Batch of 2 targets.
Target 1
Amino acid sequence: MLRPMTHNPEYPVVRRPAYARRGMVATSQPLAAQAGLSILQAGGNAVDAAVATAAALTVVEPTSNGLGGDAFALVWAGGELHGLNASGAAPAALSLEALPGGEMPKYGWTPVTVPGAVRGWTDLHGRFGRLDFAQVLAPAIRYAREGYPLSPVLAANWARAIRSYWALNLPIFEDWFRTFAPDGFTPRPGALWRSEGHARTLELIAQTGGAAFYEGELAGQIDAHAQATGGLLRGSDLAAHRSEWVKPIHTDWLGHRVYEIPPNGQGIAALVALNVLGAERLPELRDDPAGLHLQIEAMKRGFHDAHSYVADPRHVPVDVEGLLSAANAERHRALLGEQAHDPATHAPSTGGTVYLAAADDEGGMVSMIQSNYMGFGSGVVVPGTGIALHNRGHNFHTDPAHPNALAPGKRPYHTIIPGFLGRADGTPVGPFGVMGGFMQPQGQLQVVVNTVRYGMNPQQALDAPRWQWLQGRTVEVEPALGDQLARALVARGHDVRVQLDPGSFGRGQMIRRDPDTGVLEGGTESRTDGHIALW
């Protein structure tokens, strides 16, 4: 049933793209973008800037990521695209038999998997970075120690988390409240927050090249807190963790090449959806309801494959080639019609992720994403460290026959996916991404279609009204989509719901480089505190 559209005065207005020559950093928090820019101006490259931005984001946007989360990256360097999977696995003691009541909870220790982000930073920097690692982390340390004022969307998300955790009232949240809701602190725009524990942790990471987090002092503190409060994560799990350099997967679409990280990430869902669209002729106008209907239906098929087959390929083979084949696209296309269909899978709408894009004046470009999941993550904070642990284990399946079934040492299905756009001849265009749980491949699909098919610049592609498929025939749309288009989708069998919260539709960034002049063109998310720092 269609709910009536209402005017939302907070809905973003369309902005102009940004241009620069020497460097560009785009992310969801202005201070983090400025941290990356300062590293570029100090002589660093795009990877140095990306790592600096990522570290700063754990301080200045803890509502969506943290030191206890995972990360993925796509790096254009040396004339090729490199992929890094910095996601962690289930602890050795975590199994289906260990689940309370056979279910995976959202909060507490049970859904905590090994955090991979910190090792991801050190691996990226060790392979491609130029400046000293301690110099790269210095802005994040400064923000943590000296404090910073909260931006508007950050403050709203922080206040929402406090209300949620108070309502849940779990004993394990005690250290979370000490860290993120200390006495006298109320999250509001302009309110100052600092964390000396976070600063000391970042200093240890900087001094040891991340070793303290996985084998040293910090690993010992994580282990001790787990043993004292009923967690299964151990120092041996941290010591065994390694990032994985992977070959990006891709599909070609309308003269362009769209790249993703291979499973255990869900980026393949966006690629399958693009393949399903490939043999169909999208209408000339982006706002043609026939085209929107086709995109939604294709996205459902992408999720069908992702939810059926994506898992940790170290444990379960994933036939990426078959899933991206023309034959698979044809099979899916045969199921689509003029009316909405139920793909018999679902896309939960929970999230909590940060995305960043960075580029330098030497051709280097980075697409990077990191997350704690569901906002602050598990709610578990290691005392005195600022380390908020994620809850990525919640994405494991509890059916032992499913490819993504929980198993010790196995990485879960992962929602966070950096994207990268190139041309079909293999030359680069630039990084892009849309954060937000299961909205991510849907947002990426829409940004690619807006850019490649409809010729939008990065800011237009990000600002354009979005839709989000939830489950069955249910689709949420932004108010700016308009009554006429929404009713046209209803006529095609979609259960359309108007969602007034712009944060539900993801938060994206995009940078592309002119191949002739080297000029950088960027867009940032207007649904959040998005910012592009330019040089």
Target 2
Amino acid sequence: MGQFVNAKDAIVTDAIDGLVRSSGGRLRRLDGYPHIRVVTRGDWDRGKVALVSGGGSGHEPAHAGFVGPGMLTAAVCGDVFASPSVDAVLAGILAVTGAAGCLLIVKNYTGDRLNFGLAAERARAFGKRVEMVVVDDDIALPDLPSPRGVAGTLFVHKIAGAAAEAGADLDAVKAAAERVIAGTRSLGMSLDTCWVPGSPREERIPAGKAELGLGIHGEPGVEQVAYEGAAAAMSAVAAKLKTAMGEGPHVALLNNLGGTSELEMAILARDLAASEIGARIGHVIGPASLMTSLDMRGFSVSVYPASAEEIAALSTPVPMTAWPGCDALGEVGIDALPDGLAPIAPEPSSDPQTEAFLRRCCDLLISAEADLNALDAKSGDGDTGSTLAGAARAMTGALGRMPLADHTQLLRAIGQELSQTMGGSSGVLLAIFFTAAGDAAAGGHDMIGALRAGLARMQEIGGAEPGDRTMIDALAPALDALPDGMGAAATAAREGAAHTATLTRARAGRAAYVGEGQLRGNVDPGAEAVARLFEGLAE
């Protein structure tokens, strides 16, 4: 696997130029490439206190992504995970500092403290008023005398930035920053380390494990724990934070460390609200990528007991798209379904033989989940087995409220259940199949005739025919052979499914977008599911 970079030595300069060019003039940079890489506000007039931060690159959007009104005045960018030079920091200070002075916001790493600290001394020799604060919010290593600065730095950027934007003097801006630093606590967890460009990827975290408390440069954490899902991961982080949190309500910052999908981050937001510290969190920033570690598949949570004034500062809009805003953490709002969509539950009835048959069908589909997913991965998105198994599990749970003794209503009820619980086009098509079969049964058709009518309606709406490389290639011959018994239907379904492996062009479904090289020799997963179902029932 590669990375979208050009020359290794140009990674940071290329990224800065891309950021500045796409900012619409809101950002500028200093001359001095490649040693001096400083991003500044395009509208800055030195009339207020300047906020300068920075450090190693690889944490984007931090720090340059937060340069703008209400946050940073300038960001000084080092190489990936390396502190910028003293001259680069000094250039940034001198470029933006006026009579009101400058506050340096530095994360607690030796290189950053030394380079920013010496630059501050040299700037003072130039007659500039410069103060520095050091962020040390990481609680991963409780016995460490000098904790690391991580994503809680964003609280400082925003609250101190709001104060500076409002015209506060340097002492007040520094005091606001120090107050936030004193109360902020952060902790991260990841399933994998990050990939530093130009270096081999470190395989430190084994499969089935997550690392708690690793640093934003990939430094090892305090321990590796068994990974048992998102809720358990968030619970482990919340338990550590709980012991370090102050009194009163807190604002939480839910940070994507770079390689976690937005879908996963939304799940983690839900789990944060449900965790043992959820009741103490009144507002949340994110989930969003704020202080990343390249492509690390992890997250971090930062908490701070913000006052009403500080919540207002965190909530004040800024034009930088990297800042996601600060919102109240509330309950899930639920609106009633529109008229006509609320399900009308059929009258339940009992029929042990029918229930046993349906349970057998569901068990067969559930047992085939992994095999069908693997088969689908060769020609689709690898979820056919999970889609069918999920619907089967939902159907198993619904049997107690099904009209099992009335097969006409049962077919309709199955269609309704699938329309609610089964995703994708296959869910819609099978819902049509069973609903239409129920309607045909109500019109006097026997079960086989009703199922054939359901197939005809499914083909009419879905547009697929035998030979199009879909489940119909197995379902149609199976229903044709069903009058001769389940064994004959199973044989016909298997032959139809096997035939799909010879079809190198699909005319329906997602496989229609796949080249013939990926289709040749692989059975269509929908047809395979039908074949396995009939074979299992015939045993």
